[in-house]
Amino acid sequence: MSTPFYSGARNIYTTGAYHRPSVDGRSGVATNLWTDVDALARLADITRTVESPAAAGGDVAGDAWLPDNLESPGVEIGSAELPARVVSGDFHAAFRLSEDTLALTIGDISGKGVPAGVLRAFTASMVRSVSSFSASPEDVLSRVNAMICGARLEALYATIFLGWLDLPTGRLRYANAGHPRPFRIAPDRSVRPFGEVTGPILGILDNVSFGAGEEWLESGEAIVLYTDGVTEARNAAGRFIGPRGLSLLLERHARKSAGSLCAAIAEAIDARAGSLLHDDVTLLAARFRGALSA
Predict the structure, then answer these.
(1) pLDDT at 187
(2) Which domain does 131 fall in, by range?
């Protein structure tokens, strides 16, 4: 992810309709993650190994990986981000695994500022690369967890949601490593939680297994992924937005495009929290337009 706020459904750096300047110019307080050069080098070595042409089978894009053709039949993508500091510790991505399969992922790295941003880049890169040669989302999370644990960064952990959307059918197979459950918006604008948490937070325990779930999206239905900075944003009175507040916001803007929906939620959070924003806010929405076979 990048420093500015962005939203929209194609080139999000140039078409975003809303920008909130950073309210905190600090690069983040140095932590043992930042100063442990050996540990960061180990993580870099792991990432370079995973990203070798033989393993990845293709080029790896930048921070926010969105499909080359977001107007392709079957799906519409949008995203938004509000960093709590200059650099965000969240990441999100939408990328094709095949002609028929679209990967959707969002993650939250422990910490804030530049240290979290460095580790976010490593983790996001591993998720993207490992997906290219793994059999399932749960397999990806198991491999990435082993890599993070192998780097021996004691203060690094991450929550990640990873889903693989089958465009011909609308089937979404997912694995959730301790991340907030997404929301799904039905064509009638009703909002309800999506799926379950299927495994522990990454980076805590090695040799753990991750379960998986499957759900089918209906034509016109949307799934909204978010980090806990969304629901934990506070107003001046110190009240959290919470899952209920987010659900109400999603209902209010349910008819909007995926990009406009994310932008509207981010604007509402910015208006509510402003300079009181203490955690990174990230959203990724995908609206299923119907089975390609139809």
Answers:
(1) 93
(2) 7-288
Looking at residue 137, which CATH number applies to its domain?
Answer: 3.60.40.10
> pLDDT tens, 166-216?
999 999 999 999 999 999 999 999 999 999 999 999 988 888 889 999 999
Cβ contact 91:63 at 8 Å: yes
Q: What are phi and psi of 6, to 5 degrees?
A: -145, 155
Count of domains for the chain: 1
The pTM of this model reads: 0.78
Residue 187 to residue 202: CA distance in whole angstroms: 34
Which residue's entry shows tokens 């208006």?
Answer: 271
